[in-house]
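Researcher: Can you fold this with zinc ion in place?
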Amino acid sequence: MVPNYNWREALPYIEEPIIKLVQHHMAHPTWTVYDVHNYHRSKYVIREDGTKDYWAGIGYNYWIGFDGTIYEGRGRKRGAHAGAEWNGRSLGIGYQGHFNQQEMTDAQLRSGAWLNAILIVEDNLSVDDIIGHGDILSTSCPGKNFRMQELREETQKLLPAGF
Ligand SMILES: [Zn+2]
């Protein structure tokens, strides 16, 4: 579903080819997609002139709740989830929960596989391009209980021949 976000500004499309699908947890046990959006909307960097440059809103391209509901975040617009080096050539998928403390649900695994499979076909990738945030930056995200191996296996089952 597509929540009615109140973006601070228009978001640019991603112009480079997508080369990785970056999986994230929220490092928070209960936050909803709206909580994450409001939190990200409050974040900012300080410009050279000292003024605040606020994030437009939720930084993930897609987001998956405990019940498996898939939400569009920034969609095909440039995300804010993996740093300047990666935001322009990856898509970020956020999962509700804190996977150093909680288990990833079966519904999240199923929806994650379905979403990653679609993105792999759209962007001509492979299951090896499904990675965790910690694979490209120094972070424990998406958490030790993130079911990465199962996610890749379930995604592969959904892909057409040749992927
Ligand atoms: Zn992350």
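Model: Folded with zinc ion in place. The chain has four helices and seven strands.
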